[in-house]
Amino acid sequence: MKKIHAAPVSVVIPCFCCAATIGRAVASVAQQAVRPAEVILVDDASGDGTLAVLQELARQHGGWIKVLSLEKNLGAASARNAGWSMAMQPYIAFLDADDSWHPDKLCIQFEYMQKHSEVVLCGHQCIWLRDGDRLPVPAKEPRATAIRAGSLLCKNAFSTPTVLLQRDIPFRFKEGRRYAEDLLLWQEIAFAGLQVMRLESPLAYVHKPIYGAGGLSSRLWEMEKGELGNFTLLYRAGYIGYFRYAAAAFLSAIKFLKRLLLAKMQG
């Protein structure tokens, strides 16, 4: 692939009361070996000093960063959709305001998407990076795994900050959903017969335990209800039959109990 200096990618970052962490997230985008064409910061009616921090970041980076301020707090799904609608580039990448990327993330992932135009959504691994940990050294061409629709009923193949997708696909995050809304989008895309892949390399990082820490991930029961709600929507849309629906719900309940135990151990 010919070396490029900027990828035709719009990075969408939903922001809610994240003044303390958004600088790290934006810095990880600015430090990309191949930078995206634009970054869209969506303030989800934070009501604190977050919007001012976003505007200052935009001032520092000129026209590269755009700030969208929502009048009402609608949740990450709606905030991502708002940024998605504003995006000008043919590819969309998502990042959360308290997470970060490896400097080679877009270089590796965008090159893969360019070589495989049939892939509409590509994710990758994400790990917990503790303070003082050194960044992993990723493979330049990591192994890619095809993600089957049925497997997404059992497990979320990747987290939202790892996803790069084609902007014009006919799907969006479900408006107003605050839990498991990302998984529902992946499921709808895969069950529609579109190709979904995962790169087996940790190119994104969370900076707190996945379960049991503050924020949305601490609300395990709400997450479980969201996952069960996804199965209901897929069943009603005709993507899955009744027995597959029941089996997925049973497996989800088992995973929920395991997550409760993990959260207790980490607490």
Q: In CATH, what is the class of the largest domain? A: Alpha Beta
Overall pLDDT: 93
The helix/strand order is: EHEHEHEEHEEEHEHH
Q: Got a strand count? A: 9
Q: Which architecture of the largest domain per CATH? A: Alpha-Beta Complex
Backbone structural class: alpha/beta
**Integer-rounded radius of gyration:** 18 Å
What's the number of helices?
Answer: 7
List segments where confidence is low: pLDDT < 50 over at least 5 consecutive residues.
212-216
How many structural domains?
Answer: 2
* CATH 4th-level superfamily of the largest domain: Spore Coat Polysaccharide Biosynthesis Protein SpsA, Chain A
Strand content: 15-25%
Task: Quote the distance from N terminus to C terminus.
Answer: 46 Å
Q: Residue share in helices?
A: 25-40%
CATH topology of the largest domain: Spore Coat Polysaccharide Biosynthesis Protein SpsA, Chain A
Categorize the overall geometry: globular
Largest sheet: 9 strands, mixed
